[in-house]
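Changelog-linked ticket: zinc ion example.
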Amino acid sequence: MTDSFTGGCACGAVRYEIGATPAAMVDCQCRHCQQRSGTGHGSYVTFTSRAAVRLTGQAREWEITGDAGTVKRHGFCPTCGSPVYLTLPAVPDVFIVHAASLDDPGRYQPQVVTYTSSGHAWDRLDPGLPQFEKMPPQAAGSDA
Ligand SMILES: [Zn+2]
Ligand SMILES: [Zn+2]
């Protein structure tokens, strides 16, 4: 039994509590993640047990289709604008949160870097991590 992962947006209106162990932790340097994060990459904690997620507050959601055709539904706080989570309508069990939305972001331990093909020289990530030019095989949980 691990401690729940808790977190939310900057103003506190949207909150989550997830009583599950992350399936993946990924730094993604694709253009979509850069645009949404405002910096060189997005950092994501992926869970694969939607039933373990308790979400409170009202996020606004919008959708974008990734390279591989996967539809991503992004949830952000309409008051403070913080990106908080994303879901994949085609894979309803997946629930992904932005690493910095965690109450304790120190629990984020990236395992891989994806989309290094669009990474920037100024966005240096841990060189010890496995790196992929695009998505690694079978990385349904990561974002692109
Ligand atoms: Zn907020
Ligand atoms: Zn990405």
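Closing comment: Example verified and attached. The chain is about 5% helix and 35% strand. Helices lie at 31-37.
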